[in-house]
Amino acid sequence: MGPTDSPYQGGVFFLNINFPSDYPFKPPKCSFTTKIYHCNVNSNGAICLDILKDQWSPALTISKV
Prior knowledge:
Helix content: under 10%
Order of helices and strands: EE
Structural class: mainly beta
Distance between the termini: 16 Å
Domain UBC core: 1-65
Pfam families: UQ_con
Family: Belongs to the ubiquitin-conjugating enzyme family.
Shape: elongated
Keywords: ATP-binding, Nucleotide-binding, Transferase, Ubl conjugation pathway
CATH class: Alpha Beta
Protein name: UBC core domain-containing protein
Radius of gyration: 13 Å
Number of strands: 2
């Protein structure tokens, strides 16, 4: 559910999360299957965050992402 008092409030959003075989040493690939307009989500639904790319750390968990 979208956070209260945000433009996404009440929205339901679906994602694909694919874990590579070398997880947690490589980041998961996360993308929205629900169309969403957000500065960190591209037109294909891919989440564009540095922590999901070159700034990934095995100390991160999927719940922190």
